[in-house]
Amino acid sequence: MEESTYHAIDKREVKTLDIFPLGRGKRVLSYLADFFLTLILSMTLFHLAVYPLGRLIVGYDSWMKEFDEASLKRDSVLYGNELLFAKKNQEPNSLGENLEETCLKYTSYFVNGGEEKYEVFKTYYVKLGGGAESYPKIYETAYPQEFFVVSDGAVSLKETYIEEFKPLFDYKDTISSQGERDYKTFQKHVFLNLYDDMLASIKKNDLSYNGISYKAEQSRVDKIIRQDDALLIFSSFIAYFTSIVLLFIAIPMASRSSKTLGMIFLRNNRIESDSLKIIGKGRAAMLSIFYFALNAWMLFFLPFPQLDINTLFSVPILLSVSGISLILVIASLLTLLFDRYNRSLTDIFSRSVLVDEKTLDEIYRAKGYKI
Q: What is the SS3 assignment for 71-135?
């Protein structure tokens, strides 16, 4: 009988599981959830704890006292040299309102042939030695140029604007809407620009009155402004760093699934892309570096409304760091939009991916875990 040979074949059922990362919309929502939680906590810490405590430590009240004193002394040089005029019954420290009054008196010189002292730029450049040759040139380059006529070193306001501005000095008359618009343009773009240029010249070349140096007092003012900027910068970084540690290190370390607060609210999970396991504590801590970089653009807004938006643009460090962070966010968003697995830069570099609860349960079932 012919011997037969049998080969045993082990037939095992092969299971295929398709893993679907979070969709692009949900992925963006996950980032925004953590971002706004970080922003709220950072602003709370900044305004209620870090910045007030910093002001207490550095003696902020003494800074402000010195600032006010230096500002008053500095401005007294302008008042004393008749480059700034106080409004009637107005305190000398009301610089904004007194600049408006100075502009009005300056305009009256051209419109009504008022006192020559009100032509503050002639006072500075010609009488006070600011550079007589510069006087007609400042009007030749003034923007917008249509307000003045410059001839043989003499400066005059064009007749059109003289007629428009006359009602400003006649309580029985009312300025037209066109005249009001032109005066606002004249005030903002002509007078204030020329005044800024004059102050820059004074700051460079100095001017004194009763033994008080404008340049010296302005240096004191600038020093306090720099100190306050430094306090704002340090307070912003401390508040932000503390928020990152709490939200992206402490909470994931305490969470069984290494989740951030935003992930807990949205019921998302971060798993390793190679092993499909919940990320470990070490990788969760490493991710805080990415969160720090991608959320740092909020630093620009932390001092608001302590500082208004225009002033915030004068704090270069906050602006630069926030700008770099925003570039990273845009790059990460573009990666998310074009990556076939909906991964951001954070996901790619950390070799992880975000999934929802349902997908995680399916992974557990496929691995034989009981849910």
A: HHHHHHHHHHCCCCCCCCCCCCCCHHHHHHHHHHHHHHHHHHCCCHHHCHHHHHHHHCCCCCCHH
